[in-house]
Design brief:
heterodimer; A: alpha/beta; six-stranded mixed beta sheet; five-stranded mixed beta sheet; B: about 290 residues; about 70% helix
């Protein structure tokens, strides 16, 4: 029965904070006063300068389950952790915790600088509820875990911040509670120490505790957590299986990045035909003014009217499913007859060139074009992992020597993780690695041999 | 040993803890027991840290009362103060006064001092908050032992006749500590939020010393005389001094009555302290 016991039950939890210090202190005095007469201070509403740091947050964590808390800075993650730790009272809702709760937080800040590492460990261990005998027993382990054998009797003020953090973590790592709260501790120390922490985390995951884990590393959430809670402005944006929440969170980050770069005026104009035209008109006008000689060389002039990315069903779009076909449609206009124009598309990610679909390689098209026309480039299978990509266009003359337009980004396309089911996602960090790792996806098979005998085959499964 | 999970179930709601007085009292009791060892550690930490970075070290514990006494003795020798009919020599009067009053002023400052010293832990770790109160008591007791030893040495040096009732002075001495800590605990909710309280504490201590029979006998008339008469600290200081030097026990009943009131107020302060800590943590942030 205890195997599935709900150790943390959070229902409709809310917390308000005040933006101004003076007013916050005054509210504090009033809240103490209200507490002292057994009442609630201004229940369920905001007072002046207040905002909801947490707003109607609900979730449960069972024994043996690990919950990842993700969200931007200031989204309420740490506030929630503090409330789980019983440091603050809710302003709404209820929070029930069963069993012993311990927070694995960065304790280095609580060290007294004048006292030695060993004295500070004794104090911290005592604060965390270890008896003197228990502390004496685990002291060698703590010192060893922190890797501070030589410095343990030196004053903590001579420690580096990394040493302090390591010692702080070493103390809490000795605890054995039912509910464990972890706040971003793995971000401290060198690689070897982080490795140690990861091993410890993995051991905790398998030890049938309820764990709540705050982190900015989506890799860790995917690799370690069963469920994830995504907080945004104190509200639950999504709560569910870790992989699903990580996917949505990455989606959101990509869309946000696309929106931001569009606002910054990075030449993303693949959005709508009218906007595209206006943009290119302006660009071309500027180009013609500044470099008339080149643009009008040989009497060849080509105007790009619009560029659209077409989805598999032929509709203009900004998003494509993973491993789908892709068509890029370019509408152009030539005032005069244009001989053997060579169109070139280049795919980029974060400014890095990935591949080109180039008529400089594929060969010449029609002998000549004139007036308005369309050229489409069809790619039967786009081998790109879910990310945002830019598409650059340049057009060369028949011999390839003259640039007919300035090289420019004409479209931005986001490969989504729709269709991710087509590939095997059995690895521990599959989603994150696919989405945040390298841009290309190629099919592969792993074969393991014992002597000459094939023992294992791992297929990326991709059709 | 398998633990009974349900015995450790905790529910946090916006309701005041006062709505469940039984649970509150049980929590206070169990936290007090759980806090003993931690309180000792915090006490050792604060004491060690307080004097480790000073050349004179623990001498600082006895220096302030000696200095205060010296100043008043100097003032008295210049006939600035009116101090007739003391029933003892002036140096003995002022030394006993400052030592016993010091128990009160130490006690008054201690709770806020321990809360401030433990602030980084307070806002990060949930530990039995009673540890801070116990630490405040331990610090005041340490001061008490050192001051009493100092007083004993001085009385011997001054060749003072000590009354046989002297051991009974422990009662008003404990009363003075209780009085001080009670005031200090009641100030914590406000003092942890507003630094004004810490800053004002020095002023308050000096002012209280002047309206308590520390360095001169209470005038029989005038505003100061009236204040001193109604000052609840006066009987405690007078009682302690009389028990040590003259053996007069006339202030003992008043002392016991005041101690009883202080004890009740201390428990109220303790409850208030428990209720206030989560709010303090929330307002002081990270």
């Amino acid at each position: 029965m205890t195997g599935t016991a709900e150790l943390v039950v959070c229902s409709g939890l809310s917390k308000r904070f005040c933006r101004r210090l003076k007013r916050s202190l005054w509210y504090g005095v009033r809240d103490v006063g209200a507490e002292a007469v057994g009442r609630r201070s201004a229940p369920g509403r905001l007072r002046r300068d207040e905002f909801w740091a947490l707003d109607d947050v609900s979730f449960t964590v069972r024994r043996g389950e690990m919950l990842g808390l993700i969200g931007q800075n200031g989204s309420g993650k740490s506030t929630l952790l503090k409330m789980l730790n019983g440091l603050m009272k809710p302003d709404g809702g209820a929070l029930t915790l069963r069993g012993e709760v311990q927070a694995l937080i960065e304790l280095g800040a609580g060290f007294n600088p004048i006292l030695s590492g060993r004295e500070n460990v004794r104090i911290n261990a005592s604060v965390l509820g270890l008896s003197k005998a228990q502390t004496d027993r685990v002291m060698p382990d703590i010192v060893e875990f922190a890797g501070l054998e030589e410095f343990i009797d030196a004053p903590v003020q001579n420690y580096s911040s990394g040493m302090k953090a390591r010692l702080g973590f070493a103390v809490v790592s000795q605890l054995d509670p039912d509910v464990l709260l972890i706040d971003e501790v793995l971000a401290v120390g060198d690689t070897a120490f982080q490795e140690k922490c990861m091993r410890r985390m993995d051991a905790l995951r398998k030890s049938n505790k309820a764990v709540v884990f705050v982190t900015h590393s989506l890799y860790q959430v995917e690799a370690l957590c069963d469920t994830a809670l995504w907080l945004e402005h104190g509200m639950v944006r999504e709560y569910g299986p870790a992989g699903d929440v990580v996917r949505s969170y990455l989606d959101d980050q990509e869309l946000r990045a696309m929106r931001d770069s569009a606002e910054e005026g990075v030449a993303y104009q693949g959005r709508g035909t009218a906007a595209t035209r206006a943009f290119f008109d302006a660009r071309d006008a500027a180009g013609v003014d500044s470099e008339p000689a080149r643009a009008r060389r040989d009497g060849e002039v080509v105007t790009i009217e619009s560029v659209d990315v077409l989805s598999p069903d032929g509709a203009p779009c900004q998003e494509l499913p993973f491993l789908s076909e892709c068509t890029i449609r370019i509408r152009y206009h030539c005032e005069q007859r244009l001989n053997e124009p060579l169109f070139n598309l280049r795919f980029l990610h974060g400014g890095q060139r990935l591949f080109e679909a180039s008529m400089l390689i594929d060969g010449p098209g029609p002998h000549s074009v004139e007036g308005s026309g369309i050229v489409e480039c069809h790619i039967p299978l786009l081998p790109l992992t879910p990310k945002v990509y830019e598409v650059e266009l340049f057009v060369r003359s028949g011999k390839g020597t003259v640039e007919l337009i300035d090289t420019r980004i004409v479209a931005r396309v986001r490969v989504t993780d729709e269709g991710l089911d087509a590939v095997a996602l059995r690895g521990p960090m599959a989603i994150n690695h696919l989405r945040q790792g390298s841009p290309f996806y190629v099919p592969r098979t792993w074969r393991f041999y014992q002597g000459s005998e094939l023992t294992n085959t791992v297929e990326s499964r991709y059709s | 040993m398998p633990r009974d999970l349900h015995s450790e179930e905790r529910t946090y709601t916006p309701d005041s803890e006062l709505r469940h007085p039984l649970r509150l009292i049980r929590g206070m009791g169990s936290d007090l027991v759980a806090a003993r060892e931690l309180a000792w550690r915090l006490f050792v930490r604060d004491t060690a840290a307080q004097y480790r970075q000073s050349a004179l070290g623990y001498f600082w514990v006895i220096l302030p009362p000696l200095a205060t006494s010296a100043i008043f003795i100097l003032l008295n020798s210049a006939n600035v103060l009116v101090s007739n009919n003391l029933g003892m020599s002036y140096p003995v009067y002022v030394l006993t006064g400052t030592v016993f009053f010091g128990l009160f002023s130490d006690g008054m400052a201690a709770p806020l001092k321990t809360v401030t010293a433990s602030r980084p832990l307070l806002i990060k770790v949930r530990f039995p908050r009673e540890a801070l109160l116990l630490t405040a008591w331990a610090q005041t007791l340490l001061g008490f032992i050192i001051r009493i030893a100092l007083l004993a040495v001085c009385l011997v040096l001054l060749r003072t006749h000590v009354a046989p009732t002297a051991p009974l002075a422990i009662i008003p001495a404990v009363g003075l500590m209780l009085f001080g800590i009670m005031v200090g605990v009641l100030m914590v909710p406000l003092g942890a939020l507003y630094q004004d309280i810490t800053l004002g504490l020095v002023l308050l201590t000096s002012a209280l010393m002047l309206v308590t029979p520390v360095a001169f006998a209470p005038p029989s008339s005038g505003v100061l005389g009236t204040i001193m008469h109604y000052n609840p600290l006066s009987p405690l200081v007078l009682c302690a001094r009389d028990l040590v030097v003259t053996g007069d026990t006339s202030n003992l009943p008043a002392t016991l009555a005041i101690m009883g009131v202080c004890l009740v107020l201390f428990v109220i302060g303790w409850v208030l302290f428990r209720l206030a800590v989560p709010i303090i943590v929330e307002r002081l942030g990270s």
